[in-house]
Write a structure and sequence with these properties.
By secondary structure, this protein is α+β, with helices and mostly antiparallel strands. The chain has nine helices and twelve strands. The longest helix is centred in the middle third of the chain and has 26 residues.
């Protein structure tokens, strides 16, 4: 409440001015002494900061004392590298997580974007970015203080970036058995066109998971090397023990014609005469795109048995999802003889 005599701002409830003692009337202008409330969008940020201060006050001395020598950055020169395989773990142990939490958020965002665009050029860009951020977090633990020059620090970051990028690939392909491949041919029955990015997973039991119409990753026969040394995608047309006939019109399996739209005959095995092949146990008929420069067209009939008859041990994986383009993203289902999923 403002004093009419001296203009001093008095606290609400005062009957006299604190400065000059003048009587304050009740109809004087009142002021709001309550501070403005925090906007709603800032409250989660405040809660997160309070959580960090509560959970990460100063590191864990108990964990630090139990670290083996090869993981302790103060003892081993490479301890920071292994301790930061999980981004931010070293900073968490030594109570310095607040220094890199923004970079951790950026790393999580880069990983998510790399998975969203997995198999495309943008996916590669974000994967390299994630590895670079990961490397910076690791180097900033202790290694950065051992190199004074900008060139040395830059080289160190680049080397660690490629090491972590290799670790990502090893985990994704070697550990989880997941990779991306581009379709080299059209498979109308599953709405797959040339250039689409497919997610392929490892197959442990071929007999259980491979069906007619499955898009498989397999070792294909190389006519010039006389071995199954080319890895590519193909469509399973016939299963072990079945008899498949090939002509320009389409495939016939055990006397039943397959849908020409769902099981198109590749151009390199178009023949004027019908060829019949009986598959042995554990052997699948897989039609995959081949480069006709490998063999002359008149010699193709002699190579069909080797090109298309793929043993189960040479089937490495199965395409599960059409990933890119996004408007076609869908699970790849096996199809029956009539091309129905």
């Amino acid at each position: 409440m403002k004093c009419p005599g001296c203009g001093f701002e008095n606290m609400p409830g005062y009957s006299k001015c604190f400065r000059c003692g003048a009587i304050l009337s009740g109809d004087q202008e009142r002021i709001d002494v309550n501070p403005p409330r925090m906007p709603r969008w800032k409250r989660p940020v405040r809660a997160f900061r309070r959580y960090l201060r509560k959970k990460v006050p100063g590191g864990s001395i108990e964990i630090q004392n139990r670290l083996p020598a090869w993981l302790d950055p103060s003892v081993a020169d490479t301890g920071w590298f292994f301790l930061s395989v999980i981004p931010g773990l070293g900073h968490f142990i030594f109570g310095r997580l607040r220094q890199v939490w923004l970079f951790l958020c950026a790393w999580v965002a880069a990983v998510i974007l790399a998975l969203v665009f997995f198999g495309g050029s943008l996916g590669t860009f974000f994967a390299v970015s994630a590895a670079g951020i990961h490397a910076y977090i690791a180097v900033s633990l202790t290694a950065v203080y051992r190199f004074r020059g900008i060139r040395e620090r830059l080289v160190l970051n680049l080397v660690v970036t490629f090491l972590y990028l290799g670790l990502y690939v090893l985990i994704l392909r070697g550990g989880l058995g997941i990779r991306s491949m581009r379709a080299a041919d059209n498979y109308p029955g599953q709405n797959i066109e040339t250039g689409d990015v497919l997610i392929v997973t490892r197959v442990f039991d071929v007999d259980e998971h491979i069906r007619r119409g499955s898009i498989v990753r397999c070792r294909l026969y190389h006519p010039q090397r006389y071995s199954n040394s080319v890895v590519g995608l193909g469509q399973v047309t016939a299963l072990p023990g079945e008899t498949v006939s090939i002509s320009r019109k389409g495939f016939i399996v055990n006397g039943v014609s397959l849908s020409a739209e769902a099981f198109p005959v590749p151009g390199y095995i178009h023949t004027d005469t019908q060829i019949e092949i009986t598959l042995q146990d554990g052997v699948y008929f897989v039609n995959a795109p081949y480069n006709l420069n490998y063999v002359g067209r008149r010699f193709v009939q002699n190579y069909i048995h080797r090109m298309c008859c793929i043993s189960g041990e040479n089937i490495l994986g199965k395409a599960r999802v059409v990933w890119i383009p996004f408007e076609k993203t869908a699970i790849i289902n096996d199809i029956d003889i009539q091309g129905i999923q």
